Amino acid sequence: NSTFLKQPSSLLKKLESGNDTGLEPSHLDKFYQRCPPNGENRVVIYTTTLRGIRKAFEDCNADRSAIESFGIIICERDTSMDPGFKEELRN
């Protein structure tokens, strides 16, 4: 889908090119980056505030709290409030 960028991380590119002096790859660098629309330069998480499925609601709250505990500012997209966010996840 054209709305997502699918490319290796810059660290992975450096490692593959042999220009890896002093670089330690993380496990996340092995994955391709996916950037949701308007998600450049920010951390985007998809959550739900619907309490109908209690486990999903509690997991979303726990994940949000864990990320924020590191002082990371997030862009939260509530899939229960905007069907467009669900569509972003499907693509």
UniProtKB/TrEMBL annotation:
Protein name: Uncharacterized protein
High-level lineage: Eukaryota, Viridiplantae, Streptophyta, Embryophyta, Tracheophyta
